[in-house]
Design goal:
Immunoglobulin-like; 3 helices; four-stranded antiparallel beta sheet; four-stranded mixed beta sheet; 13% helix
Length: 156
């Protein structure tokens, strides 16, 4: 039997938790690491947080965009003139440009973002329209049968 690698689906979607829980239980799949490293966590029943490790990037270096159920994060450091004259003996801090895309489930929207201590936090919420939410219908008493009277037919 062939084994399929579903890790790209785990890494790039938000809001499909139940599906991936079933896949993970059946196959024991783990997401593969990538640059920049990130976490996707559930913070509530319909709330999520994507955290990216973006050490060395400032607010001005990062753009966040949502379009057609896709969340795109781009990072590119602005090169300062004094940075070009530096000579590194060892450069272990990655400062390369990146673009990370996440596929969002229907009705998942980004509500905010913050950058703190080299971590970029993006908060997402699933906002289900009122018309699509489950509604409880109360069961009332049975309606009484309508009394009917026989119709008299008159001959003409």
């Amino acid at each position: 039997m062939r084994a399929f690698d579903f890790s790209p689906l785990f890494r790039q979607t938000v809001g499909f938790d139940r599906l991936f829980d079933h896949l993970a239980q059946s196959g024991g799949l783990e997401p593969a690491p990538n640059y920049p490293p990130y976490n996707i966590e559930r913070t509530g029943e319909n709330a999520y947080r994507v955290t990216l490790a973006v050490a060395g990037f400032s607010r001005d270096d990062i753009t966040i965009e949502t379009r057609e159920n896709a969340l795109t994060i781009r990072g590119a450091q602005q090169s300062a003139p004094e940075a070009q004259n530096r000579e590194f003996l060892h450069q272990g801090i990655a400062a390369r440009a990146f673009e990370r895309r996440f596929q969002l489930a229907e009705h998942v929207v980004a509500t905010g973002a913050s950058l703190e201590n080299g971590l970029l936090y993006i908060d997402l919420v699933r906002e289900i329209p009122e018309a699509q939410k489950a509604r409880r219908i109360e069961i009332g008493a049975a309606p009484r049968p309508v009394e009917t009277k026989p119709v008299e037919v008159k001959a003409a």
